[in-house]
Design brief:
Blueprint lengths: L2 H13 L2 E2 H10 L2 H4 L4 H13 L3 E6 L9 E6 L1 H16 L5 H10 L5 H22 L16 H26 L36
Antiparallel strand pairs: 1-3, 2-3
């Protein structure tokens, strides 16, 4: 599963309507260009592809009086909203979700009701525990990786990563159950996107051909 589809759909959804540079700016504001494949080329390609797939609606906007080429603004469709929530739920529950995919999902977790978020995270913990049990059926970490030679370090890494993933997820569940953050239906959500023209202190400053489209 790629993080880029979830990130782009979520960013467009938060704006209501957004042009490509706004989406790119938001993702750089979140640091997604550092921890995911959300590079300018990938973002603009994803916007165009999802518009072709009916997940986004592309609005052609006339150029401003200051000149410049016309801009395309994107709006999420009903199909896009369904895809967005399907990706979000799958990313939160997958025990083997890549870090960028899980990071994207955590960034949008408050779009869900609190109770559902807790249930999905609990499902992730169960998946991690089941995977760990299947692995340790023939590899016992307590005996040390040397039992399998240096190859045992690979299993050691994965088991340690699973243990940390489960511990971190349980901590998040506890914080959410204790009332942390504002979830869907609970009031005004945290604003995580930049307003039009708002300066982005984390922007890379690198120009891309798609910035004007």
């Amino acid at each position: 599963m790629s993080a880029i589809r979830l990130l782009v759909l979520g960013a467009v959804r938060q704006h209501g309507r957004a042009h490509g540079y706004q989406v790119r700016n938001d993702l750089e504001y979140w640091g997604a260009h550092e921890w995911s494949n959300a590079k300018p080329g990938s973002i603009y390609h994803a916007l165009k592809q999802m518009a072709k797939q009916g997940l986004l609606h592309a609005h052609e906007i006339a150029p401003s009086t200051a000149g410049g080429p016309p801009r395309t603004e994107y709006e999420i469709t009903d199909r896009g909203t369904e895809e967005y929530f399907a990706l979000l739920r799958a990313s939160l529950t997958a025990y083997d979700a890549k870090t960028d995919v899980l990071s994207a999902a955590i960034g949008f977790i408050v779009d869900l009701p609190r109770e559902e978020a807790v249930a999905l995270l609990a499902e992730r913990v169960r998946g991690i525990e089941e995977w760990r049990a299947s692995v340790t059926g023939y590899y016992t970490p307590q005996e040390g990786p040397e039992v399998l030679g240096h190859i045992g370090e690979i299993m050691n890494l994965w088991v340690a990563s699973a243990d940390f993933g489960a511990e971190w997820t349980r901590g998040l569940i506890a914080r959410v159950e204790a009332g942390a953050y504002t979830f869907a239906g609970e009031g005004e959500p945290f604003v995580g996107v930049l307003a039009e023209g708002e300066e982005n202190p984390y922007a890379t400053g690198e120009r891309h051909a798609g910035d004007e489209g």
